[in-house]
Every structure is written in structure tokens, then in C-alpha cells.
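README: folding subset

This subset contains proteins for which both the sequence and a predicted C-alpha cell string are available. Records are stored as plain text. Below is the entry for Tryptophan synthase alpha chain (273 residues), shown exactly as it appears on disk.
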Amino acid sequence: MSLHEVFRDCAAQRRAALIGYLPAGFPTVPDSAELFRAMVRGDGDTPGCDVVEIGIPYSDPVMDGPTIQAAGGEALRNGFRVRQLFDLVATVAEAGAAPVVMTYWNPVHRYGPDAFARDLAAAGGLGVITPDLIPDEADEWLTAARRYDLDRIFLVAPSSTDRRLAMTAEAGSGFLYAASVMGVTGARDSVSGSARDLVRRTREHTELPIGVGLGVRTAEHAAEVGSFADGVIVGSAFVSRVRREGTTGVAEFAAELGRGVRSNPAPVPEVVD
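--- output ---
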């Protein structure tokens, strides 16, 4: 299933897609595989994530807040290597969710963009989110991603000008990642008031689905964001749940969030074929 089909099917249910994030190899590679399965499975009554972002741990994670930084550091100390990513991507695909990778550019550059795109596509990956790569500097990646039919997922922010929003939308595919606050990742007590306006401004330039991330940590947050965005992105709160409650807690949290995005059917725009 493509990302287009995932968002189309969620829109047909008049709800946002639930997008969950965890670092690959956290706390260990075998644990990580079980956690990703739990994110997709949910609690048996309510399914979990429609899309799973598999993060590549990185030694200089400038966008990540302390929760994700610590988790990525733990994965690296426990021996995670980029080559192990692809088995985890396959795990998510086999569990029934759409796998995408979130990574800083340097690990892809060192691996080789064409080889990375080739191996990701072979594992069942659908696309890559590149938080520190802007479309103006992404020619090498755009070429590789298009060669292997991978979606190119770029970020927009409250500071993005209309010109930047249009350029980013033109270069991207799959969905756009709307960072709802200026700053690093992390769960917050409330959803940023700038998120709704950013989604509104971005919609003026694209028909791509728009996912909102940075700050969601409760089912109520998920319902709120799902009322105006096409995707609800949750990362730090999943990491925190791993530390407190392990795999069972992650499955229950994914189901909680799943109920959140289904609790208040949203006027989600139809995804255009």
C-alpha cells in the first residue's frame, strides 16, 4: 500500500492518519522490532498506527529534544547500525502499516543515496523524511528517490514563507510534515496554536496530505490535531511510554491515540487521485 492509499483510505473514514515514531534499535534491535509491531497492532480492539516513522539514530540530532536524543544515543550504544534498519522496515510492512524512514542527511550520504534508496525500497519502505535537507539542496536525493519510487517528505514550519511552502510542496510527495512549533521535538501540555494556521497556509499551495508533529502526547491532542490535519504525528510520547511501560504500554498508547483520531470525525479533504 502506498502513502497515497493510506491517506485516501483514512480520508474516506473521515479521520486523520495516525503516524507514530520511534528510533530504530531502541533500546535494542530485537526490542525495537517488537515495539514497532505493538505500535501497529494496538490493543486488539482499536488498531494503532497507520504509518510508522522509523528514525535512524544519529550522533548530532540537532532537531531532536532530550527524550528522542537519549533514546537514539541508547540505540547507538547498544550497537545499532544503519544496515539493520532495513529489517525493521520490513517488520513494519509485514505488520500492516506503511513504513517511512526519518533521518538526518549524513547517514544517507555516507551509505550512498542511490544504495540507500535501493535497499529501502527492497525492504518495503515507502519514503524518507529528511528534517535537515531542504529541496534546494536535495537534487542527489530527489534523483535516487524517484528512481526507486520513494516518497520525498520535507518539513514546513511556522516561519516558512509562502514561497518556501510552494517550493517544498512542489518537491515533495507522500505528505508534508508540518512542524507545529519552532524548536526541538518533545511532548507538550497543549498543541501549538500555530499548527492550525500552518496547515491552512500550506493547503493553499498543495493537495498533498499534511501531517502535524511536535507536541502530541494524548488522545485529546490527537483528536484536536486530527480535526484540521490529514495526519497526527507522535514521537516523544511513544519513547516515554516505552520507558515506563514497555511493549504492552506502547500497544495500549497506540490504541488510545487511534481512538483519539476516530473520536471526532474531521472534515478531512478528499485525497486527490
